[in-house]
Amino acid sequence: xxxxxxxxxxxxxxxxxxxxxxxxxxxxxxxxxxxxxxxxxxxxxxxxxxxxxxxxxxxxxxxxxxxxxxxxxxxxxxxxxxxxxxxxxxxxxxxxxxxxxxxxxxxxxxxxxxxxxxxxxxxxxxxxxxxxxxxxxxxxxxxxxxxxxxxxxxxxxxxxxxxxxxxxxxxxxxxxxxxxxxxxxxxxxxxxxxxxxxxxxxxxxxxxxxxxxxxxxxxxxxxxxxxxxxxxxxxxxxxxxxxxxxxxxxxxxxxxxxxxxxxxxxxxxxxxxxxxxxxxxxxxxxxxxxxxxxxxxxxxxxxxxxxxxxxxxxxxxxxxxxxxxxxxxxxxx
Length: 333
Fold this sequence. Notes:
With 333 residues, the chain is of the alpha/beta class.
């Protein structure tokens, strides 16, 4: 009988320290051709302006000993409804269905919001670990929502942070972020009034906003910086300008997804600033040792879109742990 795992159940079974190495392994296997995953299928829900996406994936042998069952197999259902802001419902909602790879039978239904938050930051942390300079310690967080929180935790696990600067389009949100989460780091953490101040002298820049137009200009970025560009997964939206893309060596989580979803890159290509071959490769290629940072002065950029293999591999880990811990509620079908 399948089980239902709530957000609280997921939280009890999952830590960022576990997830970062799992994302590293999964992204490497994805780029090595071992996983099966189509590009996210999506549609707009009118007239409210909602977005709905479906992300199926199969990761053979994933999830810590699940190889005997054929690994991780299932799909994520994700929606983004901006009109939910200010209501009892969050703007982002997600559910994950985990299926038995041997039979196709439903194994579990999981709340996917926390998994999305954590696996996104864990993948970014893999990019920081592999592409940021070893001594990188000054973090700029552009955005102050749930992804800012998860990235603060994840980046802090792969680099010893010496200072964190937080910017938000709404200053009160940045102040609230500091009040609620500043204790999570042992280094100084402060808010700044504008993006340029936030990224000045930063070694690592994380953009986790809902911006449609660039908030970050390439002229402000110091040599040697590593960027995690996370906020947008729309071909018509971007957080960073074309100059940022042109100055950086760029990696993505999925080349196929980047060709249709990565507005930060597609708009720079459309403006003639770079060609498609400006993308060096996938982050999994860096995991596999096929590419990486070439010098301390180089600017590196990881464009994160979020891919199904990350969700499904994480769900497999969570369900296996929940089973051992007797967590979850059976669902009669």
